[in-house]
């Protein structure tokens, strides 16, 4: 009798254990955040790349990464592609001057979303290599409200090749400053226009209308530099400045090591990925065409500089010229 009772108790415990396991599995599926690996948010580190695109940012997302880092090129939320988020939210909010809403979005959604990715994976270092957040006016709010260390890599590329690369991304009607009824808003390039309130290189309409398409993309490149100089003067954060072309030089491995040491994130130093340009024109099948000789491009550049002038950082008397 006692043995039968003992068997019944053991069987009940076994069933109870199985049921508990099932409950845990189901609950962890329905409520995954509760079951994330415990990670102290004070140990988080957030790193970004500052550019206007076409400067190796996707390449970085393929090369850098280790067991303690979450690396992404475009990931602002789980339920909406970046292209739709830009067209439906970032761009209209920015153009309407809805800065309070943008700041609340960063505080209540973007930063918690990034932190949730770290908690879900049990990692502490977040490396966002895309240019979207900083292009569309979120840099100030990210630097103000992220409570842990922020690191930024400023990637530069020679101005004329970069302007040409941006220009060759697609037809003129897809340029963000062109009003074309036959082009979907989701096809507009992820860049600022001279009327956006966060630009730091003013370009009056009369001047803008005199610029050819190549010169307008030079303005995109130079406004990016002006906005970078503004951030350096306004906020305190660790940064590393580098030239994209240096990665392809004979000492290129040293540049990768410099980036890795700065971020505290490993990279595939023995991989062919280092010599493979992700998102290149060849991969995208966008022909990089020099429609005009280099001498003509440089002449247009000089003409553009005379028309645009230098950018001025708010209340500072010092103007930022072209030697940076």
UniProtKB/TrEMBL annotation:
Keywords: Membrane, Transmembrane, Transmembrane helix. The chain crosses the membrane at residues 12-31. It comes from the Eukaryota. This is Sulfotransferase domain-containing protein. It comes from Galdieria yellowstonensis.
């Amino acid at each position: 009798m006692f043995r039968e009772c003992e068997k019944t108790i053991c069987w009940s415990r076994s069933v109870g254990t199985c049921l508990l396991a099932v409950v845990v599995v189901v609950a962890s599926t329905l409520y995954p955040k509760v079951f994330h690996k415990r990670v102290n948010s004070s140990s988080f580190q957030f790193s970004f790349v500052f550019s206007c695109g076409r400067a190796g940012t996707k390449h970085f997302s393929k090369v850098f990464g280790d067991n303690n880092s979450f690396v992404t090129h475009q990931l602002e939320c789980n339920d909406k592609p970046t292209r739709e988020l830009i067209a439906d939210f970032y761009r209209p909010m920015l153009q309407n001057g809805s800065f309070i809403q943008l700041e609340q979005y960063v505080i209540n959604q973007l930063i918690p979303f990034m932190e949730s990715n770290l908690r879900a994976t049990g990692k502490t270092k977040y490396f966002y290599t895309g240019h979207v957040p900083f292009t569309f006016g979120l840099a100030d709010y990210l630097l103000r409200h992220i409570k842990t260390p922020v690191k930024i890599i400023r990637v530069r590329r020679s101005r004329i090749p970069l302007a040409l690369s941006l220009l060759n991304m697609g037809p003129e009607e897809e340029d963000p400053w062109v009003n074309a009824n036959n082009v979907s808003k989701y096809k507009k390039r992820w860049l600022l226009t001279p009327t956006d309130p966060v630009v730091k290189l003013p370009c009056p309409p009369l001047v803008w209308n005199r610029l050819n398409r190549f010169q307008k993309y030079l303005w995109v490149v130079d406004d990016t530099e002006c906005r970078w100089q503004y951030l350096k003067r306004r906020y305190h954060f660790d940064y590393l400045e580098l030239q994209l072309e240096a990665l392809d030089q004979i000492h290129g491995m040293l540049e990768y090591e410099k980036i890795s040491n700065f971020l505290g994130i490993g990279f595939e130093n023995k991989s062919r990925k280092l010599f493979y340009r992700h998102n290149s024109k060849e991969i995208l099948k966008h022909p990089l065409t020099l429609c005009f000789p280099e001498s003509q491009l440089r002449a247009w550049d000089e003409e553009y500089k005379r028309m645009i002038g230098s950018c001025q950082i708010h209340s500072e008397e010092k103007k930022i010229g072209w030697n940076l």
